[in-house]
Write a structure and sequence with these properties.
CATH architecture of the largest domain: Alpha-Beta Barrel
Largest sheet: 8 strands, antiparallel
CATH class of the largest domain: Alpha Beta
Keywords: Calcium, Carbohydrate metabolism, Glycosidase, Hydrolase, Metal-binding
Helix content: 25-40%
Protein name: Cytoplasmic alpha-amylase
Strand content: 15-25%
GO biological process, one term: carbohydrate metabolic process
Oligomer: single chain
Number of domains: 2
CATH superfamily of the largest domain: Glycosidases
Pfam family, one: Alpha-amylase
Cofactor: Ca(2+)
Number of helices: 12
Number of strands: 22
Distance between the termini: 13 Å
CATH topology of the largest domain: TIM Barrel
């Protein structure tokens, strides 16, 4: 257990008090803590925020092909011990690209790596048996397993004449044409346009093979019948929830109907940075959504504009904290060459510090967590999130370089204060905390600075250059 002896650090405190600051006027110095006590960090495991975090367990074009389910299985114990409670798997069934497919070109919804089609038996990730082993071990570790579901477009069917498009289209899915399982066979009547529907709102992806969810046949196979995709994934394979891919490709009622039928955790990929758009979708579906509004505010604040005041803008977590699935990176943003769609590695940990202390449900990206430089601080941030990130949220101070936020805690849980510094110099600032007459230390382990809180709740906090600190109370002996 880490302890701090004041006699040994008093000189350090005095040196820190002299550190550079580019503010026009320095904050006044405060009296140092007493030197006859020993400070001990509180035991974070004694506190609970009531939720863990989700791991996105893949990146784009994972390697080596055919081994990913086994690789993930080997990580599960570490993830569970680190405070992960859900794992989001890549699309688990056979795609048109066979052993090269990341699953977003779905062909056979019931081929988890057991049928010889599209040039392979196993998927890019492995065999059905290996997937079942992964899910079983995850459940033994109390980890929920989230399925990536692509139900707008299909790929890999056979050619047939399509009278509604007056040409041949790849819309024939049967046992010899991309659907070896023989379940959920499809033809041109099940895609737009057809004899009953002509839907096209301009957002269809692979428009010739975009499923018509208005048809009873499609609804039955996707979520209603006992052998539907949803019920097979849940009852046979053991998936616990859903990540709905590209929901712009179908109407919100589809997700609502799916969840009404089978339930489970859900998060929808509605790629829109407007918080009001995301909020409307949550209200229409009851599903959580990836909080692109927060993602883009972080990118704007930390990268594009270098201005932390963008963190004082509209974000989904502010209105729907229980439905905002926050993140700093995913398989799409990291492969996108557009620099406005990803956060620079230099700023990643500050972004994670933000989402792991604010309301919302945070997602950790596999490539970040397994980065040896990021892993130790991320494990500590997850521990802080799972213990102290509770209570009402209040921004205490924000300017271009500094952002200070307070979580007030609940009951015996003390909460925390997050201090982000986007400048090249050490910063100090006095703020009003939720505590009185106590000692604060940084639980992110980024600074040895020890802060005192006066009888009015005011404390002067310090943060490293281009970094962050997360303060909470300490025990005194």
């Amino acid at each position: 257990m880490k302890t701090i002896h004041f006699l040994s650090i008093l000189l350090t405190l005095l040196c820190i008090g002299c550190s550079s600051d580019d503010s026009p006027q320095r904050e006044p110095e405060v009296d140092p803590p007493p030197t006859d006590v020993v400070i001990t960090p509180i035991i974070l495991e004694n506190y609970s925020s009531g939720q863990g975090v989700m791991m996105q367990s893949f990146y784009w074009d994972v390697e080596p092909r055919g081994q990913w389910w086994n690789i993930i299985t080997d990580h599960l114990t570490d993830w569970s011990e680190s405070g992960i409670e859900k794992i989001w798997l890549p699309v688990a069934t056979k795609g048109q690209s066979g052993g090269y497919s990341m699953g977003y070109d779905p062909s056979d919804y019931f081929d988890f790596g057991e049928y010889n089609q599209h040039g392979t038996v196993i998927t890019r990730f492995g065999s059905r048996k290996e997937l079942e082993t992964l899910i079983s071990k995850a459940h033994d570790l109390d980890l929920e397993v989230i399925a990536d579901i692509v139900i707008n477009h299909n790929s890999g069917g056979g050619l047939e004449y399509n009278p509604y498009r007056e040409k041949d289209t790849y819309t024939l899915f049967d046992q010899t044409h991309g659907n070896a399982s023989g379940m959920f066979n499809r033809n041109y009547e099940n895609f737009y346009p057809n004899s009953t529907s002509n839907y096209d709102d301009g957002s269809l992806f692979y428009e010739e093979t975009n499923l018509d969810h208005n048809q009873t046949y499609v609804q039955d196979w996707l979520w209603k019948s006992e052998n539907s995709v949803a019920k097979y994934y849940k009852n046979v394979m053991g998936f616990d929830g859903w990540r709905f891919d590209y929901v712009l490709g179908y109407e919100p009622w589809v997700v609502k109907a799916w969840l009404t039928e089978v339930g489970g955790f859900s998060v929808s990929e509605l790629w829109d940075g407007n918080a009001s758009v995301l909020s409307k979708y949550v209200d229409e579906t009851g599903s959580g959504v990836f909080d692109f509004s927060t993602f883009y505010k972080l990118e704007e604040a930390l990268d594009r504009f270098n201005d932390l005041t963008y963190l004082d803008k509209d974000m989904l977590w502010q209105t729907h904290p229980d439905k905002a699935v926050t993140f700093t990176a995913n398989h799409d943003t990291e492969k996108d060459a557009n620099e406005d769609n990803n956060i620079d590695p230099e700023n990643k940990l500050k972004a994670y510090a933000y989402i792991l202390t604010h309301p919302g449900y945070p997602t950790i990206f596999y490539s970040d967590y397994e980065n040896l430089d990021f892993k130790p601080p991320l494990k500590q941030l997850i521990k802080i999130h799972n213990s102290l990130a509770v209570g009402p949220t209040q921004i205490l101070y924000v300017d271009r370089d500094e952002y200070i936020m307070r979580r007030d805690g609940e009951g015996d849980n003390p909460g925390l204060v997050l201090y982000i510094n986007h400048s090249k110099t050490v910063k100090r600032r006095s703020v009003t905390t939720n505590w009185k007459q106590t000692i604060l230390i940084d639980y992110s382990n980024n600074t040895p600075f020890v802060a005192t809180v006066d009888d009015q709740g005011v404390s002067q906090l310090e943060v490293p250059a281009n970094g962050f600190a997360i303060y909470s109370i300490a025990e005194l002996q």
